[in-house]
UniProtKB/TrEMBL annotation:
<keyword id="KW-0808">Transferase</keyword>
<dbReference type="InterPro" id="IPR017804">
    <property type="entry name" value="MeTrfase_EgtD-like"/>
</dbReference>
<dbReference type="GO" id="GO:0008168">
    <property type="term" value="F:methyltransferase activity"/>
</dbReference>
<protein>
    <submittedName>
        <fullName>Dimethylhistidine N-methyltransferase</fullName>
    </submittedName>
</protein>
<keyword id="KW-0489">Methyltransferase</keyword>
<dbReference type="InterPro" id="IPR051128">
    <property type="entry name" value="EgtD_Methyltrsf_superfamily"/>
</dbReference>
<feature type="domain" description="Histidine-specific methyltransferase SAM-dependent">
    <location>
        <begin position="5"/>
        <end position="313"/>
    </location>
</feature>
<dbReference type="Pfam" id="PF10017">
    <property type="entry name" value="Methyltransf_33"/>
</dbReference>
<dbReference type="InterPro" id="IPR029063">
    <property type="entry name" value="SAM-dependent_MTases_sf"/>
</dbReference>
<dbReference type="InterPro" id="IPR019257">
    <property type="entry name" value="MeTrfase_dom"/>
</dbReference>
<dbReference type="GO" id="GO:0032259">
    <property type="term" value="P:methylation"/>
</dbReference>
Amino acid sequence: MNTNFKKDIDLGLSAPHKTLPSKYFYDKIGDALFVEIMNMPEYYLTEAEFDIFKNQNQELIKALQLEPSTFFELVELGAGDGTKTKQLLKALDDQNYNFEYVPIDISEHALLNLKSSVASELPNVKIRPKQGDYFNVLADLKKTEHPIIVLFLGSNIGNLPDSRAKEFIHKLNDNLKIGDRVLLGVDLIKSKDIVLPAYNDAQGITKRFNLNLLTRINTELGADFDLNSFEHKPEYTEEEGIARSFLVSTKNQTVTVRSLNKSFHFTEGEKIHTETSRKYNDRILEDILGQSSLKICDRLTDSKQLFADYVLEKKNR
Ligand code: AVJ
């Protein structure tokens, strides 16, 4: 882990356009800041998808074409605290659907919490948590003969640049059977007046979230980033539909990373790209699905039309 971290930081800071992988946001502090982000008024995504799961769970069950008598596995990639999913689990449980819930997450801690909250709130629901990186656990999907429903919510796919999203979809497709389905939650393309504040909140929580990446490099790799000399700056245009977050150096400066035995120079105004958050519409999703056998068969949106949960099905061809 630490060797990958070290290697990725070195690569990113040595590139002509400096960049750092957003997956490294999520240490203990980053996890807590992300919980704060999900609760901020500007971050509309969480509430919008929750609205779908809470107020349209019957429609969701119908769109997923679930049958009460056929056992299926409900596999969630990046389950987190499962707040949205528990709304669906409850509806399925109330109607005696026959299934097992398989939440997958990088964080062992998140899975333990989820397991105990499901056990106490929904004691009849079978749960089998699995720890791992969701790119790597996809191969495990092949191990079952039962129908599979994959949940990939929260616009987590948005963190992947389009080329990586296509790779992910193809790998997912390769590991599913004909008839298996995917519920893919994505943030919809909308005006910058709504998107930008979600990544630049008034309380400065997202700024702390972004800067925490530098704190991590300072603590884990013995670097001397001065957090006061970098500004948080998100960018977004509705034409492109991609929000990007940057850390901008406010002066000419040199940062030393002790465990790499290296220094990195930053000019005034130079940017480090730290995150991509892609927004979607039907056309972009069709492009990402490309020639794979995963086809869009339904789509639910929240009451404000901010967010969509797409139902994809693996077809014959
Ligand atoms: C968890 C990837 C969906 O990109 O909107 C929130 C992460 N970053 N605020 C997103 C995030 C800054 C979030 N995702």
